[in-house]
């Protein structure tokens, strides 16, 4: 068989012997040199790609979009970390994150969730505790109510991007025209009086705008806040629903009546975005909603009535500690992430006092992330640009998600209940509230249905036995907290 690997020649004895390939030694040296160069190139390329890429799931609101735009500075300061963003609307974001984290898919290294999810998911071991947090981050600079909302069992589970409470926005020019001197802390009766005087639907101006879109974080955030103002709450300290009660009937009756008499068409399906659009275009005489909206309403670049707007607290009735909404969007790290150190490094940068100052200098002071840090409200540039700043700080600081209700309770949350079942419960009740605004059901019937549905879900979830449940209209056994 012919050997194609080696050349052979005939010797004087007729035997064959190996003949060195011309330049073989040089070829070997060249091959080794080329191989060494190749390996060096590969190593260099690998080193260039050795940066850690973290996947971030974020909500598409103004604060996060601004953060994404400014995050190149973090990458310049941390060349070993690459950020990959996925910006989604709130409903899609919740679905994607919940599915991934519940199935331990590991798709995301950093997620934006609310303080509701922080409490529930930390208990379910779906999140990683955030440690070590560097001393330079200044945890003690966080507003106490906000810090409390992201802590559980002595650990921090989320770093707040921005926080919000509730307040009432109003058109100063319409109030002046109607001869109204607004109270800084109005009652429900006063809000009704204001709305009646400024309601001019023929001119495209509506007395009041409110959320009506059915969702636990939509209309029920507002409804719960309003009911709190009347001294109502979701559950007593035995987990029995308290929806079919005088406090809920009064709060919901006020809400439905105001929406139907003084609200714009389509209130039953309007959410935050729809009401914001109506407000900045001058169609809302008043709007009760998130303090977060202030950064847009008072921004001349985004609001056609920025110079005509005023603000006052959310209305209350019997219970002065009510109407205290507290929500924050935070950065949390899923337990499944393999890049926790890099994710935490970015989260601390993105929620730091230094980032807030940079955002003010580059994006505008009125748009900086609000509601998280004491130091934010000490910035003279922010105080000058944001006349609403002190009201927002007061509203957030006054929120008490632990024991802010009239009667004792076992749940954490102001405008929500910190249990896994609340998403289903809140959305179901929200559908009844929207139906009442649309005139499809009475307030009493909507609350009766809500009470029964909530009782059934709580019983099925094991919060109490049928034998110990009180009738829906029974007086609660708990005693007033104050």
What does this structure look like?
With 482 residues, the protein is an alpha+beta fold. It is 41% helix and 12% strand. The protein has 18 helices and twelve strands. A five-stranded mixed β-sheet has the order 4-3-5-12-8. A hairpin with a 5-residue loop joins strand 1 and strand 2. Helix 9 (219-229) packs across helix 10. The longest helix has 25 residues, at 24-48. It is globular and about 60 Å long. The model is unreliable at 1-49 and 466-482 (pLDDT under 50).
Summary?
This protein is α+β, with helices and mostly antiparallel strands.
Helical content (DSSP H or I, runs of 4+): 40-55%
SSE succession: EEHEHHEHEHHEEEEHHHHHEHEEHHHHHH
* Biggest sheet descriptor: 5 strands, mixed
Overall radius of gyration? 30 Å
Report the principal-axis shape: globular
Number of strands: 12
Main structural class: alpha+beta
Strand content: 5-15%
Write the layout of secondary structure elements.
Blueprint: E1 8-10, E2 16-18, H1 24-48, E3 52-59, H2 62-70, H3 72-77, E4 81-88, H4 90-102, E5 110-114, H5 115-123, H6 144-149, E6 151-152, E7 155-156, E8 159-164, E9 166-171, H7 172-178, H8 188-198, H9 219-229, H10 246-262, H11 272-280, E10 286-290, H12 294-297, E11 309-313, E12 327-332, H13 340-350, H14 353-363, H15 380-385, H16 389-398, H17 422-437, H18 443-460
Helix pairs in contact: 9-10, 17-18
């Amino acid at each position: 068989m012919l050997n194609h690997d080696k050349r052979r020649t005939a010797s004087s004895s007729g035997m064959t012997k190996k003949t060195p390939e011309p330049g073989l030694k040089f070829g070997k040296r060249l091959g080794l040199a080329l191989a060494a160069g190749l390996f060096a190139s590969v190593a260099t390329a690998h080193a260039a790609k050795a940066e850690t890429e973290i996947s971030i799931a974020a909500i598409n609101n103004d604060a996060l979009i601004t953060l994404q735009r400014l995050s190149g500075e973090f990458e310049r300061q941390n060349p070993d970390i690459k950020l990959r963003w996925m910006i989604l609307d709130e409903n899609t974001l919740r679905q994607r994150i919940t599915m991934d984290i519940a199935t331990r898919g590991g798709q995301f290294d950093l997620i934006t969730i609310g303080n509701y999810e922080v409490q529930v998911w930390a208990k379910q071991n779906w999140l990683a505790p955030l440690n070590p947090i560097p001393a330079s981050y200044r945890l003690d600079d966080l507003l106490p109510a906000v810090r409390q909302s992201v802590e559980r069992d002595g650990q921090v589970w989320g770093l707040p991007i921005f926080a919000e409470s509730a307040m009432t926005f109003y058109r100063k020019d319409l109030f002046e025209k109607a001869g109204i001197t607004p109270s800084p802390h109005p009652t429900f009766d006063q809000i009704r009086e204001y709305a009646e005087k400024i309601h001019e639907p023929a001119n495209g101006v509506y007395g009041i705008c409110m959320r009506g879109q059915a969702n636990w974080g939509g209309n029920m955030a507002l409804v719960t806040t309003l009911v709190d103002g009347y001294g109502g709450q979701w559950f007593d300290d035995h987990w029995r629903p308290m929806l079919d009660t005088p406090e809920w009937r009064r709060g919901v009756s006020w809400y439905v009546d105001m929406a139907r008499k003084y609200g714009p068409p389509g209130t039953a399906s309007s959410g935050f975005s729809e009401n914001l659009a109506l407000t900045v275009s001058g169609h809302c005489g008043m709007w009760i909603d998130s303090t977060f909206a202030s950064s847009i309403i008072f921004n001349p670049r985004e609001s056609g009535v920025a110079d005509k707007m005023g603000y006052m607290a959310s209305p209350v009735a019997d219970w002065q500690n009510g109407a205290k909404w507290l929500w924050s969007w935070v950065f949390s790290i899923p337990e499944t992430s393999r890049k926790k150190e890099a994710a935490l490094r970015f989260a601390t940068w993105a929620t730091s006092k230094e980032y807030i100052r940079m955002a003010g200098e580059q994006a505008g002071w009125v748009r900086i992330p609000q509601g998280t840090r004491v130091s934010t409200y000490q910035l003279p540039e922010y105080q000058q640009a944001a006349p609403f700043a002190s009201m927002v700080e007061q509203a957030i600081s006054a929120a008490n998600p632990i024991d802010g209700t009239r009667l004792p309770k076992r749940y954490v949350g102001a405008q929500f209940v910190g249990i896994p079942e609340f998403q289903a419960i809140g959305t179901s009740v929200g559908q009844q509230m929207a139906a009442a605004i649309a005139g499809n059901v009475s307030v009493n019937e909507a609350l009766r249905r809500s009470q029964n549905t909530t009782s059934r879900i709580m019983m099925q979830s094991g919060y109490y036995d049928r034998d110990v449940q009180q009738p829906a209209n029974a007086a609660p056994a708990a005693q007033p907290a104050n």
